[in-house]
Amino acid sequence: MNQVKSILGSLIEPLTKPETYQALISNLIMIIVYIILALIIIRITNKVIEQFFKVQNRGRKANKKRSKTLISLVQNIVTYVVWFIVVTTILSRLGIKVEGIIASAGVVGLAVGFGAQTVVKDIITGFFIIFENQFDVGDYVKINSGGTTVAEGTVKSIGLRSTRVNTISGELTVLPNGSMGEITNFSVTNGAAIVAIPIAVTENVDKVEEQLKELFTSMRSKYYLFITTPEFIGVDSFTRDELILRISAETIPGEGASGARILRREIQHFFNVKGIEVPQPTMVQNDANNQ
């Protein structure tokens, strides 16, 4: 019984001393100061990193997407380092020996590593994605896993552990980097807009081609996504009622489908203005009485 009283007394005694509360308030104030300083340092450092890459890539259009990727990576690393320093400083302030924790981290890390292999795989894969330049922020990609497409859209951000992709329908997909298999990047090479346009078989193909050249020249300057002037490839096929014309144009990376939609719209409007006929459905009537 005396031992219990002695233990309780040793626990309660510090609470009766003003020094205890002074030390507690002092530690709380310093912890708040450390956190505020960390937030300020991270914010300033992020701005400095952004400005640094802007200066380095001024006038280099091809490096803008790459810069966004590297900015995101460097900012993440800086954030982790700052918070690590803050946490260790706070622990030291509270009288906890950080050296012992760091020394034992290797043993604990080895034990945890067996249960965190997926996280390690995600981080390693993230490094390969960034430094091999497999894709950048702003690229349009299709990502497969096990032969199945798990995400297709525009890359929003690339982190060490995961990648965020905005799909064409608006959803945000977060993928662990280690889960990515086959990656198709549509933004590396120029796109191709290829369309098949039907006209009535009675139309003069040479005349239509000459008229379309005027339209294509104006489209080249009207739409930024066309790298080359659209051109008439030739007659792809024909039937009793229609001729199928093949039109092609080179576009900026990832804009082949958009270029094709623009071509169809502009050509349809042009045909209406110029009075170029398109195939009309015909009805064939079989009169059983005449057989």
UniProtKB/TrEMBL annotation:
Primary location recorded for the protein, binned into one broad class: membrane
Species in which this protein is naturally found? Staphylococcus kloosii
Start and end residues of each Mechanosensitive ion channel transmembrane helices 2/3 domain: 76-117
GO cellular-component term (any): plasma membrane
Membrane spanning segments where? Answer: 20-42, 70-94, 100-120
Record's Gene3D superfamilies?
1.10.287.1260, 2.30.30.60, 3.30.70.100
Q: Where in the cell is it found?
A: Cell membrane
- What membrane topology term does the record carry? Multi-pass membrane protein
Stored PANTHER family? MODERATE CONDUCTANCE MECHANOSENSITIVE CHANNEL YBIO (PTHR30460)
Q: Under what name is this protein listed? A: Mechanosensitive ion channel family protein
Q: Which Pfam families match?
A: MS_channel_1st, MS_channel_2nd
A molecular function (GO) term: mechanosensitive monoatomic ion channel activity
Query: Keyword Transmembrane, does the record have it?
Result: yes
Q: Which family does it belong to?
A: Belongs to the MscS (TC 1.A.23) family.
Domain Mechanosensitive ion channel MscS residues, every copy: 118-187
- InterPro entries named among the record's database cross-references: LSM_dom_sf (IPR010920), MS_channel_1st (IPR049142), MscS_beta-dom_sf (IPR023408), MscS_channel_2nd (IPR006685), MscS_channel_C_sf (IPR011066), MscS_channel_TM-2 (IPR011014), YbiO_bact (IPR045276)
Report keywords, A-Z.
Cell membrane, Membrane, Transmembrane, Transmembrane helix
